Amino acid sequence: MNRIDFSHDTQAAAVIASYYDAPPLAYVHSYGCQQNVNDGEKIKGVLMDAGFGLCNKLEDADLILFNTCAVREHAEDRVFGNVGALKSLKEANPKLIIGICGCMTQQPTVVEKLRKSYPFVDLVFGVNGIDTLPALLAQKLQGGKRLLQTPSERYDVVEEMPVRRDSSFRAWLPIMYGCDNFCSYCIVPHVRGRERSRKSADILAEFRRLVAGGYKEITLLGQNVNSYGKGLEENIDFAGLLELLCAEPGDYHIRFMTSHPKDATFRLIDTMAAHPQICRHLHLPVQSGSNRVLAAMNRRYTAEKYLELIDYAKEKIPGITFSSDIIVGFPGETEEEFEETLELIKKVEYMQLFTFIYSKRTGTPAAEMPDPYTHKDKTARMARLLAVQDEIAARLARQLVGKSYRVLVEGHARQEGALTGRLDNNLIVEFAGDSALIGQYAQVYVEDARATVLKGRLD
Ligand code: 5AD
Ligand code: SF4
Fold this sequence. Notes:
single chain, alpha/beta, six-stranded parallel sheet, five-stranded mixed beta barrel, 14 helices, binds 5'-deoxyadenosine, binds iron/sulfur cluster
């Protein structure tokens, strides 16, 4: 791991300033996971450092950047559709710069497609080039030619990057980048590269800045937070990092994602139990309840091992809730194997599930596996799974009625005069209250549950 500090690019900023008559505006949109959203916040920070302002309308922009996601085909199709729609904007304003970055552009086939079929795209760069964006832009403005970078395997950890956060009270805090797990269906290790952890001192410094800045909810991010610390010179693991952060005084709470069941430890559960600042919620993607499918997915745990961890957490942390990712229709998943997933869901009783129909990703081992089931079969299974889950979640939500909870007030609800607050367990409660509460903690009494949306009043 090579750690470098971001530095302001004076030369690039001067080129950008002299190119435009007025300070230029950038429209940045991020697709996909929180890691990508946080990358988008860094992109905005770096652009502002280079002299750009930000805008919310495509029509107002001098620079449009799509920070893309590659995890499923559907996500990629959506990006291509949205990029296609920019053609008319470019025709109306030839000075407009259009850039595509993020996970999709780490795939050579995508860069080729953009080169050939989207001639109005000016800039393409991968997930590891955010700090070099001002220089890239300056080069484009000076040279005029398209700059489509082929994916680079650059493994620097860049610290001190300017970040323009989307929220003033919830923050993403990456602790590691990349993934070494190579689940057989997943493109992420291929596009985000090898795991590298940030030094704990760098994480702690950013954490302190966030707490001092009034951030209440700090979510630690990594594709696999439980392998935090591997490869660092210091001797620290994820539970150790949590201990370090929880020693910081202040009014905040911590979430983290994503945990991999093969690496999540009893010690992690003990650490969660010992620190009230850590939300009593565990996102632990199981993907499937069938051991045959789990092996084919290269997940390296069994359903029994997974349930052991869940049971331990239920015992040590009363009131803990769980969420998970599930893939329906992995190549060759049989009816019986699908039913094993339903059984596991019933045993765990998740509060929330993120469910995906398997999407074939070229270059991954699963893409080569025989897949006799049709999309229609898979959609039907998905509907059955969702029916099971809806029933469980509604039952769990009903159990929350009649008690009072501390929530972080996040924003306005759809209903006039109502606010939304997030409980420890990640559920949302709607209640009447003053806008001044947004970004603060409030105590809310839950009066009713409609499916998984809770209704309450200030307590
Ligand atoms: N098809 C469907 N879902 C996928 N995921 C990752 N790759 C694929 C794929 N090829 C899901 C997994 C992962 C989540 C982030 O996305 O469930 O946990
Ligand atoms: Fe993909 Fe598996 Fe890594 Fe998650 S742990 S990013 S599913 S390879």
